[in-house]
Design brief:
The structure holds 2 protein chains of 2 kinds. Helices cover 36% and strands 23% of the residues of chain A. Chain A is α+β, with helices and mostly antiparallel strands. Chain A has 3 domains: 46 residues, Uridine Diphospho-n-acetylenolpyruvylglucosamine Reductase, domain 2, CATH 3.30.43; 116 residues, Uridine Diphospho-n-acetylenolpyruvylglucosamine Reductase, domain 3; 112 residues, Enolase-like, domain 1. Chain A has a 5-stranded antiparallel sheet. The termini of chain A are far apart. Chain B is α+β, with helices and mostly antiparallel strands. Chain B folds into 3 domains: 178 residues, Alpha-Beta Complex (Aldehyde Oxidoreductase, domain 3); 332 residues, 2-Layer Sandwich (Aldehyde Oxidoreductase, domain 4), CATH 3.30.365; 146 residues, Aldehyde oxidase/xanthine dehydrogenase, molybdopterin binding domain (Aldehyde Oxidoreductase, domain 4). In chain B, a hairpin with a 2-residue loop joins strand 26 and strand 27. In chain B, helix 8 packs parallel to helix 9, helix 9 runs parallel beside helix 16 and helix 12 packs parallel to helix 13. Chain B is globular, with a radius of gyration of 27 Å. Classes of the chains: A alpha+beta, B alpha+beta. The complex binds flavin-adenine dinucleotide. The site of flavin-adenine dinucleotide has 30 residues of chain A, from strand 2, helix 2, helix 6, helix 7 and strand 10.
């Protein structure tokens, strides 16, 4: 059962920031799909929740100065059906499609997904390859933090208790970029990722790989970029040999742990196989597109 | 109405030293602890006859033996207040060593989980945490093995999975001015709840009235009286107010599981595939309470010898206490465990002898005319209906059995395989002589003045359509249109005893009772009509008149001599004579096997270890199919639950006895609709079969539908990747580990 708590219902963003400023015992409530579960399990004991899920300022997806800007309270279901996301955030859209179940998708927000700081957050790998930043606002401060620096450990972020995530933004990817996302869960739906992978290919004119980004979820204390693998692939052709090597490097980048969903060894092994497969498919697709 | 909450132990094994309830009481809550409950030790499940019933349970614990065991409970005006009050209770525990592994628990020096329990009315000592054991032997086992051409064997590990039934355990109890109780519980047996509450709280049964509440599923979790029910009763009696107590899902997941077990099985055979003998050793992890371990040990070998004709068998089963959730019946009562082991070894035997495993099954299975004792050594009957050959041949054709790859011959990333599992469940636990399990039903049927019929039975329906089937049986037997037959709401004070809806007995035994009562009513109808029509009862008969929408009494030779059932009942009423009604108890003297065959085709991803179900073909011999759509639903549901058992579900405890999932479903992995094969790739059909002892030829289906599924999956995976798994669930991780091991062995060769 839920413990008792006070629930504040701000009508505007400034009002919410005002409430956030008043005490450090407050906690924002967005979709509640992480928070309410933790409250039931007594893993989190805030005295006051501030419901930010209904704030218009935090909803919606828009284009602004060459960036895609997603309001932190946009739900996963919003992302799934949004045309801008379909075009400029392909991997994120795919992640939204395999996220939890329809009920949860209607409640869960992108801001909550990142703020919770889970290594298995499905929005994180796609946002990492998109080069996303997190916009943080408090009553008196505003700052933007690259997502890579935002999550610092299991359930740890750089967010100050008085700050709200207001938006997540990334530069509009160049025309022709391709993004993909794969997750492995123990069921086909309604499963937390045992591991997840996002890959994004920016520009592929010459058959060489101009820039390729790989991000991995649930295989380290935070979602990570596989930098060594990316470097290897940078600027070269996607040959089977290079792909195999990159997959190996990606796996080496992990610091997987074992938990109820899978052992460290399993995660490492499957990461290799899946990175290899995703890259092979990408190479094939881009070749086909050219012909 | 007040709301109740339970204080559950955070420890898996501890003495409760002191409880301070003052803060909770100061909030206005009514609190109960061990000191407030009757010191009556009981077994929640009274299906075993009293003399061999082990009793180790109190309403609240003075010593906790599993995480989540109820130590105290509160009731208050609101759920919120009850929650606050229950958290204000302070308990001091003396923490004891925790035993989660039955093998460890049996070792000398292991902490005793119990010192004594009651067996019947006698106190007995518990040694080495062994709750009970059982040895059963028939034939000449040593000779059978000595003369065998081949012996196959395996050690199979089966996990304690959670029932994941639709609603969590719940009860409402209302104390009555006469000192009695009215109870609305989640249960599979309202009468057993009544008897237990009467015994524990020393209330005459006439004053304990338990009502039937529709429930959406149990999978066996409510055969026994659920722990919250007597707690709720104790709260209501102390507060003198009605109380509602419902477990949260997390609490419920800590409460009961399927029996976990390690089975060592050996099968001996001749070159031609004839089975000659078996040796079986079972170590059963019963968790913190003995719910029905003695019977469980009996059926464990019963399932084996009723699957296949094995003339000589030596069996020893040991039931061991551990500090985990109590094990209880769950869809199959040990049958899926034994069928998994047996069907795996049958397949292995066939491979080694180079015989088609389907033929091997046909050669050895227990079928028409054979003796059958699935429900244990005392529950014997002869098989009188057998659709197994039909189901096997039809299924083989539908799945493409003869074209399946040779085991392990597939290469590449995705490897396909086809597997077969064959099994059964008994329809009830009836036999010519009563055994150690109580099995009888009762029903009342009465004719109303408009020719409609009330069916009154205490049988439960857990979403399987059992009660609908009973209406159909009454309608057929009395020639009354189905829409004029109604199943009355049931409560213990106005129904006759029905043991419980379990053991796949609902339609066969519960329906048998309705048929018996309806047959008596029919006699009463004819006798009464004979009086009005100036004839003899045996000159009359009944038919359904579709035009009148009525049952009609008539005699074929004098067409005018008729009376509708409405006319008949109305005359009995207006002439102040009687209600035409009948009441019967019915004990089936057979428990015919309801056979099921399952073929599955899987695709194994050798990169991730994920198993995808491509196709499933299920066949059932449930005799006459009374509700075809509901019966198909049972087969599809059985596939889903069996698939969960085979591939996904596990309930693991850490060495401190904490449930690792915390009871959260996100990681308890029942299979969902996305795991099911596509609707056009899921075939379910029935054998043309008629069970002479069943109501209109019917047998059961429910548990049978699930029993062979895990075996079918294991065999399909074996066929796909050439590896046999002896442990469930067959997770992606286990598949990858096994594949790697196999690769390494190939490299070494
Ligand atoms: C059944 C189920 C299935 C799930 N499946 C998945 C899955 O497939 N993939 C996945 O990634 N996750 C899954 N989750 C987890 C969860 O749904 C997601 O992490 C979700 O995105 C959390 O968002 P929310 O809006 O519900 O967050 P909330 O629960 O409202 O909040 C989570 C945390 O973030 C903080 N917070 C929320 N919004 C802000 C903000 N704007 N600024 C600052 N802090 C904020 C809250 O204070 C809280 O600490 C699942 C959860 C459940 C219950």
């Amino acid at each position: 059962m839920l413990p008792e708590f006070e629930l504040l219902m701000p009508r505007t963003l400034p009002e919410a920031l005002e409430m956030m400023d008043e005490s450090s015992k407050v906690m924002p409530l967005a979709g509640g799909t992480n928070l309410l579960v933790d409250l039931r399990g007594r893993l989190s004991r805030p005295q006051t929740l501030i419901n930010i899920g209904g704030l218009d300022e935090l909803r919606g997806v828009r284009v602004e100065d060459g960036y895609i800007v997603v309001g932190s309270a946009a739900t996963i279901a919003d992302l799934k059906r949004n045309a801008l996301i379909a075009k400029h955030g392909q991997a994120l859209r795919q992640a939204a499609t395999v996220f939890a179940n329809p009920l949860i998708r209607n409640r869960a927000t992108i801001g909550g997904n990142l703020a919770y700081g889970s290594p298995a957050a499905d929005a994180a790998p796609p946002l990492l390859v998109l080069g996303a930043e997190v916009e943080l606002l408090s009553k008196d401060t505003r700052r933007t933090v690259p997502l890579e620096e935002f999550i610092t450990g299991v359930r740890k972020t750089v967010r100050h208790p008085r700050e709200l995530i207001t938006a997540i933004r990334w530069p509009i990817p160049p025309e022709g970029s391709v993004g993909v996302f794969r997750k492995l869960g123990l069921r086909k739906a309604d499963a937390i990722s045992v591991l997840s992978i996002a890959v994004m290919l920016l520009h592929m004119d010459t058959g060489d790989c101009d820039q390729l980004r790989i991000a991995l979820g649930a295989v380290a204390p935070t979602p990570i970029r596989a930098a060594a693998a990316e470097d290897l692939l940078d600027g070269g052709p996607l040959t089977p040999e290079v792909i195999a090597q990159a997959a190996q490097l990606a796996s080496e980048a992990t610091q997987a742990i074992g938990d109820i969903r899978g052992s460290a060894a399993y995660r490492k092994r499957v990461i290799t196989a899946l990175v290899q497969r995703l890259l092979t498919n990408l190479a094939k697709d881009t070749k086909e597109k050219k012909h | 109405m007040l709301h109740g909450r339970v204080l559950s132990s955070p420890y898996a094994h501890a003495h409760v030293k002191r409880i301070d309830t003052s803060a909770a009481k100061a909030m206005g809550a009514v609190v109960i602890t061990f000191d407030d409950i009757p010191t009556v030790r009981y077994n929640e499940r009274i299906i075993t006859i009293p003399s061999v019933l082990h009793k180790d349970h109190y309403v609240l614990a003075d010593k906790v033996r599993r995480m989540g065991e109820a130590v105290a409970a509160v009731t208050a005006e609101t759920e919120e207040l009850a929650e606050r009050a229950v958290r204000a209770i302070k308990v001091e525990y003396d923490v004891l060593p925790v035993l989660t592994d039955p093998i460890e628990a049996m070792k000398p020096g292991a902490a005793p989980i119990y010192d004594t329990v009651l067996l019947g009315e006698n106190e007995i000592e518990i040694d080495h945490n062994i709750a009970c054991d059982r040895s059963i032997e028939q034939g000449n086992v040593d000779r059978a093995f000595a003369e065998a051409d081949l012996v196959v064997e395996g050690t199979f590990n089966l996990s304690k999975v959670y029932h994941a039934q639709m609603e969590t355990k719940s009860a409402i109890c209302r104390p009555e001015p006469n000192g009695g109780l009215t109870v609305w519980p989640t249960t599979q047996s309202i009468h057993n709840v009544r008897i237990l509450l009467g015994q524990i709280f020393d209330i005459p049964l006439s004053k304990v009235n338990v009502k039937r509440v529709p429930i959406g599923g149990t999978f066996g979790s409510s055969i026994q009286m659920n722990p919250p029910i007597p707690i709720c009763a104790a709260l209501a009696l102390k507060a003198h107010r009605p109380v509602k107590l419902t477990l949260t899902r997390e609490e419920d997941a800590h409460d009961h599981t399927r029996y976990g077990e390690q089975i060592h099985l050996q099968l001996a055979a001749k070159k031609d595939g004839t089975l000659t003998g078996a040796k079986m050793e079972a170590i059963v992890d019963i968790g913190a309470h003995n719910i029905q371990a003695y019977s469980f040990l009996g059926v464990t070998v019963g399932w084996l010898v009723s699957l296949y004709k094995i003339p000589s068998v030596r069996y020893h089963g040991t039931a061991v206490y551990t500090n985990k959730a109590p094990s209880c019946a769950m869809q199959g009562f040990g049958n899926p465990q034994v069928t998994f082991a047996t069907e795996s070894l049958i397949e292995e035997l066939a491979e080694k002898l180079d015989i088609d495993s389907l033929e091997l099954r046909l050669k050895n299975y227990v079928g028409m005319g054979d003796t059958f004792w699935g429900q244990g050594p005392l529950v014997r009957s002869i098989v009188n209906s057998d659709g197994v050959p039909e189901l096997l041949h039809r299924g083989a054709k539908a799945i493409g059995w003869n074209d399946r790859p040779k085991s392990g011959s597939e290469t590449g990333r995705f490897r396909s395989g086809i597997g077969l599992g064959r099994g059964f469940h008994t329809s009830g636990a009836g036999a010519p002589q009563p055994g150690d399990v109580i099995d009888f039903s009762g029903a009342m049927v009465k004719l109303n003045v408009d020719g409609s019929v009330d069916v009154i039975t205490a049988l439960m329906d857990h979403g399987g359509g059992t009660l609908e089937a009973l209406n159909r049986i009454a309608s057929e037997a009395l020639c009354v249109p189905l829409d004029k037959v109604n199943m009355a709401p049931a409560e213990t004070c106005s129904t006759v005893y029905d043991c419980v809806t379990h053991a796949t007995r609902g339609v066969y035994a519960g329906g048998g009772a309705v048929l018996k009562a309806a047959t008596t009513l029919r006699e009463e109808i004819l006798t009464t009509a004979a009086h009005y029509l100036n004839t003899q009862a045996h000159a009359l008969t009944l038919r359904l008149d579709e035009e009148l929408g009525q049952g009609v009494v008539y005699t074929p030779s004098i067409p005018d001599l008729t009376m509708t059932l409405s006319e008949l009942a109305t005359r009995c009423w207006s002439e102040s004579w009687k209600t035409i009604a009948a009441v019967e108890s019915y004990r089936p003297v057979h428990c015919p096997p309801a056979y099921v065959t399952v073929f599955v085709e899987v695709k194994v991803d050798t990169w991730t270890g994920l198993v995808h179900t491509v196709k499933a073909v299920m066949g059932s011999d449930c005799g006459t199919v009374i509700c075809p759509k509901m019966a198909i639903g049972q087969l599809e549901g059985g596939l889903s639950k069996g698939m969960g058992y085979a591939l996904y579900e596990s309930n693991a405890w850490n060495t401190d006895g904490q449930l690792i999932s915390g009871g959260y479903w996100i990681d308890s992995k029942t299979s969902g609709i996305s795991e099911s094969p596509r609707i056009d790739a899921l075939a379910a059909s029935f054998a043309h079969s008629y069970e002479p002892s069943g109501p209109f030829g019917a047998k059961g289906i429910g548990e049978a539908a699930m029993n062979p599924v895990a075996a079918a999956y294991a065999n399909a995976i074996r066929n796909a990747i050439g590896i046999r798994f002896y442990e469930l669930p067959i997770t992606p991780e286990r598949i990858l580990i096994a594949l790697k091991k196999k690769e390494r062995m190939h490299e070494q060769e």
